[in-house]
Specification:
Belongs to the profilin family. With 126 residues, the chain is of the alpha+beta class. It has 4 helices and 7 strands, in the order αββααβββββα. The longest helix is centred in the C-terminal third of the chain and has 17 residues. The protein is globular and about 35 Å long.
Length: 126
């Protein structure tokens, strides 16, 4: 399956993710929803957020120009919120899954979708 298919089918296609991207840990966007652009600075900040979760916990995270308040951050998952909307960001061995959701969808609906794909990618070496 192509990286774009994971974004289109597994994440956005679930109905629980509004827009998504898959980033490489070494840099670069592997796939993304149409018109969903994460700047190079945003990508670097996300990667660094997994290296130093306390930094992203204190300053929040920017996704496609929008600032999100970080609810929790650990070496695997960053949960963020912006009003009624939010984001779930999960790190695998080689990639980072970035998934945004819009109200009325809740984090409890989106998180298992993103975590499940992350677990699968880890199981196949990514």
């Amino acid at each position: 399956m192509s990286w774009q298919a994971y974004v289109d089918s597994n994440l956005v296609g679930s109905g629980k993710v509004s827009k998504a991207a898959i980033l490489g840990l070494a840099g670069g966007v592997w796939a993304a929803s149409s018109e969903y652009t994460l700047s190079t600075e945003e990508q670097k900040a996300i990667v660094n957020g997994f290296v130093k979760p306390d930094t992203v916990q204190a300053s929040g995270v920017r996704l496609a120009g929008q600032k999100y308040f970080t609810l929790s951050a650990n070496p695997r998952t960053i949960q963020a919120k912006k009003g009624a909307d939010g984001a779930v960001i999960v790190k695998t061995k080689q990639a980072i899954l970035v998934a945004e959701y819009n109200a009325p969808i809740q984090a409890a609906e989106t998180t298992p979708i993103v975590e499940g794909l992350a677990d699968y990618l880890i199981s196949v070496g990514y």
